[in-house]
Specification:
Length: 304
Amino acid sequence: MKNPLARLLRFAGLSGNRKDHSLEFPADLKSPGNIMVYSGPLESAVWPAILLANALQTTYKDVSMTVICPLRDGKLFKMLRRKPEILCYDNRPKVPKELSKRESRPVSSLLFFPYSRIGKEEERFLRRIPCKIRIAPLEAPSPLVNIRVRTRTVELPGMLEEMCGALRLAFDSAWKPVLPRNIALDADHLVRRDAGRGVPYMVVSPRVPALLKKLGAEIPLRKVVLGKKGTYGTVERELAVALVAGSEAVVTDDATLWSDACALGRPVVGLDSKNTFMKWRWAAPVENMEEFAKQCRELAARKW
């Protein structure tokens, strides 16, 4: 006779790792001792983690949350309704020392991995994380995840919304991240210092100004370049996000700026010639110069 738990998981769009006999479903999902959310090493990877963390805080109002993220992204999680415990790694994913040294660990802790694929560096992390249950919307099964939620889409936020729905967790698809006031004011001060108060601007990646000029698709907005050779040099991650949030539009060939704009709900034109951009429900990048120029001209035709 087939395992009734496995049948239930498959019916709900989930798959379980049969080697993990300690899993109690759905009791461990209803009353976990702790929730962990993993945020990946790429700059754009922070947004799935923030969106999912917000949903989990809505469902698990009285459960403590730990976010494991790159050091540069720690302040971005202040956008959540309640500040979680934040444990950071440097460049490569690893179990933070604070977590590995703890003597007392909740036996019913949940780890949420908000991505459809596991990178090679993340495999080592998942093997070592002291967590009973690991949940992810993976495209393919993995022995490192014992609850895999199969979704119809990899677009954000739809993928996370489907995963939460299958697990009977609340998900607010209309929620948009908002930066703390002090960070937003720092970005506003930076812009006003150079251009004066109330001057509208667009955010672009370093290669875009020359592309717009070459394509004859200039947009009548002041350009704030973000990147290694940016308008303000190299700025901290949270300040760069605040500059995107305060912009009128974003035009980019950079995967990070693309996801920043999509997550924050800014009008965006993206050139994804290598097909590496994160997929979002409400925006689609283009892969060639002809379509890029067309979308830039449409953006320029708006009344600014």
